[in-house]
Amino acid sequence: MKLVIAIIQPHKLEQVKEELYKAEVNLITVSEVLGHGRQKGVTEVYRGAKETGNLLRKIRLEIAVNDNFLEPTVRAITRGAKTGETGDGKIFVLDLPECIRIRTGETGGVAIG
Question: What pTM did the predictor assign?
Answer without folding.
Answer: 0.86
